[in-house]
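Service request form, structural biology core

Requester: graduate student, group of Dr. S.
Request type: structure prediction, single chain
Budget code: on file
Notes: please return the result as structure tokens.

Sequence provided:
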Amino acid sequence: MAHKISVTGRPTSSIQDYGKYLTFDMEEKGSPNAPKGIPFRSKAITYTVVLSLKQFNKLNINREEFSQRRFLVQGEPCLDIPFEQCTGEIGVICMQIQEIEDKGKENKETPKKGSRAQKSEENKQQEEPKKEEVKKQIFVPEGTRNWMSLEDIKVPESFLQFTPGIAKQKIVEESIEKNGTVDKPIIIDPETHELVDSYSRYYVAKQRNLDRVPVHY
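Core staff response, request fulfilled:
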């Protein structure tokens, strides 16, 4: 009997296009508590999902919106995916993929009735300016000298020959999720704008399509 695996959630990386097939990463956090008697606890695992172009087209979702949707992927684990394409810990050959509704978001958008609804709407209007103020407060990592577009940073060929380790990527991804940017400035040459160090942060920022990043000289 073939091995089966199911992964649910949002993509944690951008789509990588390899012609007839695509890849993207998904993460399962695991259960916080193991059954009584088992001294181990499951941890988060990153899966690299491989799906055909035909499967993706059937979803009728453009690539920009893809990472904002939730999916159920059913497939089989695979150990033969090339290392440079499998950025996750386990590769998954997609047999079936379908979008699933975000129930939490749906409940938030459910309209209320009567005076309570009016009161809720008034509170919401008062809270919106506060949310805008929070968005404007940008996290600035210690040592930041400037902010620069990723397109303006020149990456030497020697860096492009390898993929950063999963552990390093994870640290940067968590910072982006929490603060909206990388955890530390990216080191560049101030005159040539060439990358000197921090390729892991540049790599993840590129995967997450960040407009600009903090830099240090």
